[in-house]
Structure formats: structure tokens, C-alpha cells
Design brief:
alpha/beta
Length: 145
Amino acid sequence: MDEFMVAAIDEAKKSLKEGGIPIGSVLVHDRMIIGKGHNRRVQSGSAILHGEMDALKNAGRQSSQIYKESVLYTTLSPCSMCSGAVLLYKIPKIVIGENITFKGEEDLLIERGVELEILQNPECIILMEEFISNKPYLWNEDIGE
């Protein structure tokens, strides 16, 4: 498995250990992680700290050229908000761990020229299936229902 998806999965596991939703993400530029994060919605009482948003936040301010040359790795298909951030910063590619438990705005991203690589990674699928089964109220609170 790709080292960057491994890093995203590690972030997802951190969130789960913190009592949060197991979604992780890393932003990669020139084969180096420049930002990593995980869903902190529960931990921070935030409506916007999804895994992708946390990774972008932790990458800090970057030039538009850096974003245009980066790849976003995420354990779950990105929602509308996170897809909007990808489009805003013109990130050209997303590697998605899985889209079985949730399919985000993939059609919009493809329509706007973003390359998607969907792995259907078993570990990503199990993390989300178990979480949704064990804590449906947390999943449904945000985008699940």
C-alpha cells in the first residue's frame, strides 16, 4: 500500500482513539507530506474540521502553485465542503481510500477535471463500517443521513 495512504489511515485511527470519526487525510507535494489531519469535528466541537480540511489547515499557507502540484489522500470520499476546498485550491488529484460507505462529490470533481483514484482499501472500509455500526448517531449528525 502507498505510504501516503498509510499515513492517512494512521490519521483516521488517531481520530477514532480520540473519540472522533475515523477519517484521515494527508496533502502531498513533491512526494512529501506537507499537511496531515483527521476528522476533529467531535473533539473540537467544529462543524468544519473534516479530515481533509484539517490536513489543509495543518499545511499552512501555501502558494497556489504548490496546491496545483499536490495530491490529496483521504480515507473516505470527500463531502461537498471538502470537495469545494479541492476545487478552490485547484488540487489536481485525490487518492480516495474508499467510497462504499459514503460517496461524496466525485461526479462534480471529475466534471471539474480532478483526477480520482479510488482504492476500495479494506482497512478504510472496515474502519467506517464499524464506526457507523457502533456510533450511528455521530455519523448521522453530520453527513451520514
